[in-house]
Write a structure and sequence with these properties.
The complex is a heterodimer of chains A (478) and B (1095). With 478 residues, chain A is mainly alpha-helical. Chain A has a two-stranded antiparallel sheet with strand order 1-5. In chain A, strands 2-3 form a two-stranded antiparallel ribbon. In chain A, helix 4 runs antiparallel to helix 5. Chain A is globular and about 80 Å long. Chain B has 13 helices and 56 strands. In chain B, the strands form 13 sheets. Chain B has a 22-stranded antiparallel beta barrel. Chain B has a five-stranded mixed β-sheet with strand order 10-15-16-13-14. In chain B, a hairpin with a 3-residue loop joins strand 49 and strand 50. Chain B is globular. The chains are: A mainly alpha (478), B mainly beta (1095). Chains A and B meet through helix 1, helix 2, helix 4, strand 2 and helix 18 of A and strand 27, strand 29, strand 30, strand 35 and helix 12 of B.
Chain lengths: 478, 1095
């Protein structure tokens, strides 16, 4: 019997009746997200969302025929639609929203990461930038009710016009909120906390948006454009804004490098549409844009054929300037601003008419050559004399937009926006297009919105004319 | 000339390997025999065999020397051996049979007749390992004996259960890899399919922990009523494994179970053997590069260009090539013409030479070798009045049909118990498993080229001689590949020799492989205090623990950046369990009760590391070789669940039984104010045949029972899932990067609840045939679901309690002994089950859950009001009159989002047969499934890239459809004769007159019809076969070596008799995942021998 008692005691010991306490708190998971780390992460997502790490982001390079597809033609034949916008909302937008929330709440997560004003202003500017990228693709999108978690699992869609109005306001207010005397933001891998640069960035976005309204609401567009220009935009190549990738860091590699080198994909070559324009003009940027092949040629691949071809050695991939592991990708640059000003003069946003437009146009080309490091005065002079290049009032708008398209190589979303707004450059749709309506005018909404946000989705589609496809007419389109 | 008949190297390798294994085997057996005979030789030994009336062996029959305490137990073959005094009498007894007394003499065969009231004492293992008479149960439990489970020495428990237990669906794993399959019992309960739990001697563990030869029986608990006492983790069923124990009889025995099988490829997709690699021959008359690059037969031509090529290449001008860089087979006919194969572009003797282009019909088949599997075990059993003991050692050494793939596994098992004084019994069951695996084939659709089967079936050139490729390094040490670039545009080997998509498959297998080091320990130490005849206190400490160390190499020099990654994880689960068990009889009433408590602690930690940016030295496979900051992540969870539970069962005159259980859990992973949840069950059984006793009906209906039960089971969620997660991003320089997780979690989560009822009947006729039917319904409500929400909310999913998924079905199991004579018997059992799962409700405002998206927007969704797991995808558009609508480019128009069908099968089942004729026995099992769909990437690209024999043919004009269709105008039609015209009409109603290139049809047009990529998962399979022979007892006796021996010829995964997808080379019972395959590994068959000897 003694033994029994002993054993029962031992058994009872197994049942030390403790409470759960912190059992459910993981020692390895973060409980608080530092605002500086959220900012870095939001900026890193530019790589995926803008510059082309995912298939969706490469669409524009194909739509404006900067690139052509090799073995598996798809998007260049206009087959893609209904791309997801979830990475925008759940990624940088929610992170930036959290930065604003933490600062407003006085959370310790924001401590030491810059003054409250500067942190909020930077988050607002970046949010506005991402929202602009989105509305220019899809048109009406959730905005006012977005990013509210369980308060709105099915947020309403806002009109593009209202989104533009709100973004103008956000950018203006954010610039005013920046206080250069206060502590600069931390975790900023684009401008390294330079608050003057953030002002310039915001003003440049506002300038782009103002010009975007040229076909729809010139009055509003001109007002905003003029105000932005006055507030200070990029005024030299030294002020060019780009996102830098890191040589030797596979997690921060240029997305084209990832595609060509890390993933060994050779799906894209420079488009023959572009090389056919540049080659006869002896454009010195061509060997920068495209890979130089044996025989010292840059060979473009015919755009829009439904024929599988292998690219390596046969056609020029994009140039090393764009696809080196640490190659930067442009946000905004001086030549782009000059092209905008040329167009603005041509359209009457700025004073001076064709004469001023021509000067800006020439300066833009020069700035572009300088930016790519191929400027040579004699070649530049000769280039400007070429009949297709020499500015003429009658074809000025087309010339400005065509040269801008050449300059904006691989900064293709902006080129697509320009093409949709002005119809320039003149592009021939893919010969073997799957969709006979040609180059898409917008992106279809993500398919799962039908199931997950049906009522609001249907309302948005109704305002597009009832069909959700790549050809619906969003507000700012002419 | 290309000489490709060089079989010998592979064959030679097999031969040496086989003979090496055979030598081991030959050495092993006699030495064991020698060793053991000495140990156990006795003076006055009587051996014999106990059989049932049909002559089948009766395992575990009890043999006693009359008038003494001396006794033994027959082994699984019914064979026993006992030392007795001369002239003694033996008393033989076995469950369900009449007791028999015989004179002790050697070489006895004792046939026991069935006891009256047969089958009434069938005992099965129920929840918590409680043995119950089956007739008392108010729910369905199906049991299978160890020997019927491992007919062909299968190493996989899950696939051994299929077809033998009604309601078990195999969700497969390729037979040509080492993985265990998974099963589903009674369909699904949540948004995703959940496997049942596996319990070995009372401890929850993984099926890989089981020593297959050591299984005494497996009991499958299907519904919540059966598993209610196990609690939440068993809500998808429980597979309860009881291992063989020693007995409390004074006996010693040794069992040896040896198996050797040879594994060979059983199924491949149907390849075409007419056309070589290339993209373009059917597309155009001229290459897209311009005129002169393609000749009339579709060969790609070399064009000498002095600006690119050296003068010595001038003579190559006009030579025929293949589009080497294409990994598709839309090239020229393999008609014996001379051409430049890829290897003629590598420096050496063959450089610049032309060879004939001939078909290689067996290139893929010959790439695979014969695998061998040595699967041996030995166990020692000993017993005595106050102890029993069994010790097992199992050893497996298996090589697969691909090079380098090998797994070595050792298993050690110990079971035993001994009495400490009069009241206390201590017991233990332990299994330790250790395995080391190298080169496990990687499956799925991979872009890193590490799945070579995907290469052959989806992206390949049919003219390739794989034997030729075996020498994967050039004399200078550099690698070669068939998938080189284009010598037309470069003369630099470093440029044109660089593979486009694929490295040499031999190199991939030899150098880019992974290893797995796995250790698992499962076991318990228990104590039973017997207060009196009726009351026991049982207490156990249980442990289930594993550690893994896995790594993967991507070797240097290939297409992909070299890399080394490793994953280390460990899991430990401790359970402290104490039960008070009471059992008594009061007059007509029997009472059976249990009160218990359990504390479970789970701990998991994981460390994964991978090099980034390449390796510092070629093939330096270590984390330290990482050129950039290595990627490291750690995972850690901890969880505690406390439980109390109880059970009470009352029986009346062995006729009516009522049982109730209740369990309460407290889980640390739930919110503190919602962490307690309770769930009851109640069940009843009525043996109505008791009322028929003495009537004439009883002669036919020898046993009849109906049963009914109701139960609910609650469950929690994983650890650390109550707050919104914060995810680590990659550092940018020294800047940390984090983002807010994508699942909204607002707290307030309640435990989920499954409610279920079932009714059933168990009938036996003429003591020979039985039928068991169960009808059930499960209501899965308040599930803790990650429901999809509009991503504009900032989150893609939200964690909520919601939903109602109803699964219902019927299970039928037939058993019988149609023939039973002394020399010949036939036993058969048939299982069949039908299950359906309806999604009644997800969450307010949410009617769709997207489970998965495959290529071409082929989506697997759960939609409210529909069947769980319905496939939606593209369909060719029709004009309402049944005509396909064709676009002006000749391709079909299509509609998105069309319902295709259900992913889960309509019904499943199987048949188990066992024949005995004198010393011979023949056993086989068949399983089948009707319905279900899976997405097949293999089928998609096997046709899309022109590899399949389906892609060879003539069009409706009688011309080879791979020929160029020419240019086209609406009025004039096509100028050429080739191409394929899809029957249909243009939008304006006029008939389609446009022929499109064969590749456009097979690659593009067919992608617009989900029926082409969603295949029917129905199948019938002969899974295992065993033809055995029992060596005569007399012979055994004379040789004085062993008591019994059986030698068998075995076949595993014997024959896929029928499947819709068989003609496409896919075995639907072996899919990568239940709903798709992205690069299915091949199916294999194992044939070999099995020797079981008892000493």
């Amino acid at each position: 019997m003694k033994k029994i008692i002993l054993l029962i005691t031992i058994a009872a010991l197994f049942y030390s009746c403790d409470k759960f306490d912190d059992t459910n708190i993981s020692p390895t998971l973060l409980t608080q997200a530092s605002t500086k780390a959220l900012l870095t992460n939001s900026q890193q997502s530019l790589s995926d969302l803008v510059f082309g790490n995912v298939a969706s982001a490469r669409l524009a390079s194909l739509y404006v025929q900067h690139l052509a597809e090799g073995p598996y033609p798809g998007p260049s034949l206009y087959n893609d639609r209904n791309l997801s916008f979830s990475t925008f909302y759940t990624g940088p937008l929610y992170n930036l929203e959290t930065i604003i929330k933490y600062n407003n709440e006085g959370s310790s997560a924001a401590n030491g990461n810059g003054s409250k004003n500067n942190q909020i202003a930077v988050a607002r500017i970046l949010k506005a930038y991402f929202y602009l990228l989105m509305t220019d693709k899809w048109g009406d999108i959730p905005y006012t009710e977005a990013l509210k978690g369980d308060e709105a699992y099915s947020p309403a869609y806002d009109k593009q016009q209202n989104i533009y109005t709100s973004l103008f306001k956000e950018l203006t207010e954010a610039v005013a909120q920046i206080n250069e005397a206060e502590a600069k933001v931390v975790g900023d891998v684009i401008f390294n906390g330079n608050m003057a640069s953030w002002k310039r960035f915001a003003n440049t976005i506002r300038m782009v948006m103002g010009l975007r309204l040229s076909a729809k609401d010139q009055a509003k567009g001109k007002t905003e454009y003029t105000a932005a220009l006055a507030a200070g935009v990029i005024s030299s190549n030294a002020q060019n804004m780009s996102y830098a990738f890191v040589t030797g860091d596979p997690n921060n590699s240029n997305p084209w490098y990832n595609n060509y080198v890390a993933s060994n994909r050779n799906d894209y070559a420079i488009s023959k549409t572009l090389t056919d324009y540049m080659e006869p003009k002896n454009d010195p940027r061509l060997p920068i844009y495209g890979e130089v092949l044996a025989g010292n040629v840059v060979k473009g691949l015919t755009y829009g054929r439904n024929v599988a071809v292998n690219i390596p050695a046969a056609y020029s991939r994009i140039g090393n300037y764009f696809r080196a592991q640490g190659a930067s990708m442009p946000l905004f640059n001086y030549a782009q601003v000059l092209f905008m000003r040329a167009e603005a003069a041509k359209l009457g946003y700025e004073a001076g008419g064709d004469a001023v437009a021509e000067q800006f146009y020439k300066d833009a080309i020069k700035a572009s050559w300088q930016q790519y490091g191929v400027f040579n005065q004699a070649a530049y002079d000769a280039y400007l004399l070429l009949p297709a290049v020499a500015y003429s009032a009658a074809t000025g708008h087309k010339q400005i937009m065509t040269e801008k398209w050449v300059h904006m190589y691989l900064n293709s979303w902006e080129s697509w926006n320009d093409w949709r707004r002005t119809g320039f450059p003149t592009l021939t749709p893919a010969v073997d297009a799957i969709d006979s309506r040609g180059i898409p005018l917008r992106l279809g909404y993500p398919t799962n919105e039908v199931a997950l946000n049906g009522t609001n989705y249907n309302a948005a589609v109704a305002s597009l004319g009832g069909t959700d496809n790549n050809y619906g007419k969003m507000w700012w389109l002419p | 000339m290309l000489k490709h008949i060089q079989v010998s190297p592979i064959l030679a390798t097999f031969k040496t390997k086989i003979s090496r294994h055979m030598r081991k085997l030959v050495l092993l057996v006699p030495s064991l025999l020698f060793l053991l005979t000495g140990l156990i030789a006795q003076k006055t030994t009587v051996t014999g065999k106990v059989t049932d009336p049909s002559g089948n062996p009766l395992p575990r029959a009890s043999i006693k020397e009359k008038g003494t305490k001396n006794g033994t137990i027959a082994n699984d073959l019914g064979v026993f051996s006992i030392s007795v005094a001369p002239g003694a009498k033996l008393i033989i007894s076995a469950t369900g049979h009449e007791v028999k007394e015989v004179n002790a003499q050697d070489d006895l065969t004792i046939q026991l007749s069935l006891a009256t009231g047969e089958l009434t004492e069938v005992v099965v293992t129920t929840a918590l390992g409680v043995k119950r008479e089956k007739k008392a149960l108010g729910y369905s439990v199906q049991e299978i004996k160890g020997e019927n489970l491992t007919v062909a020495k299968s190493t996989d428990l899950s696939s051994s259960l299929v077809g033998k237990i009604a309601g078990v669906q195999l969700v497969g794993s390729p037979s040509s890899t080492f993985d265990n399959a998974d099963i589903l019992i009674r369909g699904v309960t949540g948004l995703g399919p959940q496997a049942p739990i596996f319990i070995v001697d009372g401890t929850i563990t993984n099926q890989s922990a089981v020593i297959m030869d050591n299984i005494d029986n497996v009991s499958v608990l299907k519904g919540p009523a059966a598993t209610a006492l196990y609690g939440q983790r068993a809500s998808n069923g429980a597979v309860v494994v009881t291992t063989k124990k020693g007995t409390r009889k004074k006996t010693q025995s040794v069992e040896v179970n040896l198996g050797v099988t040879f594994e060979n490829l059983a199924l491949l997709p149907p390849y075409q053997n007419e056309y070589a690699g290339g993209y373009s021959s059917s597309y155009t008359s001229t290459s897209s590069l311009g005129a002169g690059y393609l000749d009339a037969q579709g060969f790609y031509l070399f064009k000498y260009n002095p600006a690119i090529h050296p003068a010595s290449w001038a003579s190559f001008n006009g030579q025929r090539m293949i589009e080497y860089g294409a990994d598709e087979s839309w090239g020229p006919k393999m008609d014996g013409s001379l051409y430049r194969p890829y290897y003629s572009w590598y420096p050496g003797d063959e450089f610049g030479k032309e060879f004939t282009l001939t078909p290689q019909p067996d290139n893929v088949k010959n790439f695979f070798r014969t695998g061998t599997n040595l699967n041996n075990s030995i166990s020692f059993t000993s017993g005595g009045e106050s102890h029993n003991f069994r010790m097992t050692y199992g050893n497996q050494d298996r090589t697969l049909i691909v090079e380098e793939a090998r797994r070595k596994q050792h298993q050690f098992g110990v079971n035993g118990s001994f009495d400490v004084g009069k009241y206390i019994t201590m017991s233990t069951d332990m299994i330790y498993t250790t395995s080391f695996t190298t080169g496990k084939p990687l499956e799925g659709y991979r872009l890193d080229g590490l799945n070579v089967t995907q290469n052959f079936n989806q992206w390949f050139e049919r003219q390739l001689d794989l034997e030729k490729m075996k020498q994967y390094r050039q004399p200078d040490g550099s690698l070669n590949s068939w998938n080189i670039g284009d010598p037309n545009f470069s003369s630099d080997l470093a440029v044109y020799g660089r593979p486009q998509y694929w490295d040499n498959p031999w190199w991939v297998l030899k150098e880019s492989y992974g290893t797995q080091n796995h250790d698992r320990m499962v076991g318990n130490v228990g104590m039973n205090i017997k207060f009196d005849k009726h009351l026991n206190l049982q207490s156990y400490v249980r442990m289930n623990r594993y550690t893994n160390e896995n790594d993967q190499r991507v070797a240097s020099g290939g297409l992909n950046l070299d890399e080394f990654s490793m994953l280390q994880n460990q899991y430990k689960e401790m359970n402290y369990e104490t039960n008070l068990v009471y059992k008594n009889k009061f007059g007509d009433f029997s009472v059976d009760g249990l009160l218990g408590a359990n504390k479970r602690r789970e701990y998991y930690s994981q460390l994964s590391m991978g090099t980034a940016g390449g390796l510092s030295s070629p093939n330096y496979f270590d984390i330290a070789a990482s050129i950039a900051r290595p990627n490291v992540s750690r995972d850690y969870t901890k969880k505690v669940v406390n439980s109390v539970y109880g059970k009470a069962s009352v029986g009346f005159r062995d006729m009516i039984y009522v049982e109730a259980t209740i369990r309460n859990d407290w889980s640390s992973s739930l919110p503190i104010d919602e962490n307690s949840y309770q769930y009851p069950s109640v069940s009843t059984s009525f043996i109505f045949s008791e009322l028929l006793k003495g009537t004439s009906i009883a002669n036919v209906l020898t046993f009849g029972k109906i049963r009914a039960s109701y139960a609910s089971v609650g469950s929690d969620l994983g650890a650390h899932q109550l707050d919104i997660a914060i995810a680590n991003g990659s550092f940018y320089g020294t800047n940390p990067s984090v983002s807010i997780g994508n699942q909204f979690r607002g707290g307030g989560i309640k435990p989920a609840l499954t409610k279920a009822w079932e009714v059933g009947a168990d009938l036996r006729f003429w003591k020979r045939f039985g039928i068991d039917v169960t009808v059930y319904q499960n209501n899965n409500t308040d599930q803790i679901l990650p429901v999809d929400v509009s991503s504009a909310s900032g989150f893609t999913t939200a964690q909520i309690n919601a939903g109602n998924i109803v699964s219902e079905g019927i299970e039928v199991s037939l058993t019988g002994t149609p023939i039973s004579t002394k020399n010949f018997s036939w036993e058969v059992s048939l299982n069949w089950a039908k299950n359906s799962n309806e999604v009644k409700e997800l969450a307010p405002g949410i009617n769709t859950y997207l489970y998965a998206t495959n290529r071409y927007d082929t989506r697997l969704e759960h939609r409210v009001g529909g069947e769980w797991g319905t496939y939606y995808g593209r369909k060719w558009k029709t004009d309402g009159k049944g005509n396909t609508v064709i676009l002006s480019n000749g391709l079909p128009d299509y509609d998105l989002n069309q319902e295709i069908g259900q992913v889960l099968p309509k019904w499943t089942g199987g048949m188990f047969n066992s024949f005995r004729y004198k010393g011979f026995d023949l056993t086989f099992s068949i399983d089948f499934q009707n319905g279900g769909l899976f997405y097949s990437e293999t089928r998609n690209f096997n046709t899309g890239s022109g590899l399949s024999e389906e892609t060879v043919g003539v069009n409706d004009k009688g011309y080879d459809w791979r020929d160029y269709p020419g240019s086209y105008t609406l009025a004039g039609g096509n100028t050429g004769n080739g191409g394929i015209r899809i029957p249909g009409v243009f939008a304006d109603g006029t008939p389609n007159n446009r022929y499109i290139p064969a590749r456009s049809y097979w690659y593009t047009a067919r992608q617009r019809d989900a029926d082409e990529v969603l295949l029917d998962a129905s199948y019938v399979k002969l899974r295992e076969v065993r033809l055995g022979y029992n060596l005569p007892t007399s012979l055994m006796q004379k040789s004085k070596i062993a008591k019994a021996a059986n030698i068998g010829f075995i076949v595993q995964n014997a024959w896929l008799i029928w499947a819709t997808s068989k003609e496409y080379g896919i075995d639907p019972s072996e899919l990568e995942v239940f709903y798709r395959e992205g690069g299915q590994l091949s199916s294999t068959r194992q044939i070999g021998f099995n020797l079981r000897v008892t000493f």
